[in-house]
From TrEMBL:
Domain of life: Bacteria
Name of this protein: PepSY domain-containing protein
Source organism: Croceibacterium salegens
Transmembrane segments: 12-31, 127-148, 175-199, 317-339
Keyword field: Membrane, Transmembrane, Transmembrane helix
Record InterPro entries: PepSY-ass_TM
Pfam families: PepSY_TM
Amino acid sequence: MKLLRLAHRWTGGIVGLLLAVIGLSGALMVWEHTWLCLPRSNERLVTDSKTLGASVEAALTEEPGLKRITFASEEIGLHEAIYSNGSGAYFAQDGVLVDRWTSIWDRPELWLFELHQHLLLGQNGKYITGLLGLVLFAFSASGIGLWWQTRKTFELRLWPARMTRSGIIRQHRDLGIVAAPLLMLSGITGTLILFPVAYEILSSPWAGPEIGNSTPPKGLPLTGSKTDWQKAIANARSAFPGAVLRRITFPEPGAAITVRLKQPFEWTPNGRSLVWLDPSNGALLASKEPPSNGSAVIAEALYPIHSGKIGGTVWKLFLTFGGLGLAMLGTLGCWSFWFRNAHN
């Protein structure tokens, strides 16, 4: 137990502030829809093919090199367009431009997401945050073991009774045991989201067959004709009646348009029902149902659980408590560790 306590203390002293940053940024992102503060972001959702097609045309006209457009949702009533040069734009659902940005630093929700997922280190940062997710899981598990020895002195405090090392440690211990289940869940789901291949390997014994084509068609003829987006969207929706259009990804020359839809039973915000369209005429080429076996259902639930996209306000409040708790545990724990060492 002494070795466990030593490992818990030293590891926390080293990575505590990084975990605090991830926790605080995550808590803020849960409520992104409430603080986005953009005009017309609260408008009622419009889903007819004609209006959506006009919005796609507006995004294409705004700037060349459109990579993808994510359509408005119940939470945020704006379309988000991302361009190949790294810029982007928000459009109202009637195609009117609401805001433009040239880099992630122009929009707080964009750099906050990069901070949470990559620590502002680009794609390489995900290896650090993925490892920190495992560390958080191990921290929480070891903290439960360490707390058990002093369980009779438990007294929940959101803030230390005294800003002394002993007061901080006691508050850290008792707040940590309450937050531990949420932190373990957040840690492991975050890691598996960043490294889906790891989950696929672990769950491969329970994986079932895929339904539909698994890869988009390639080698399409280059006709140079303009896509009729109203027709294309209607064709995509015909593959999954009742589904909501969520995203269109624009292809390289000779490749198909990829459309993502969300069916009523899906949890993932942008859905996992895929359709591929011919860019020359908007014709339906292929479709793919989301996997329905046990392991795939769990995989689909990882992101919605981690980000609060299911469970309503109650689950968002739980995640907020976990994120703010992690920020406090990491910050005060790190401070008390180095403060103690400075006086030894």
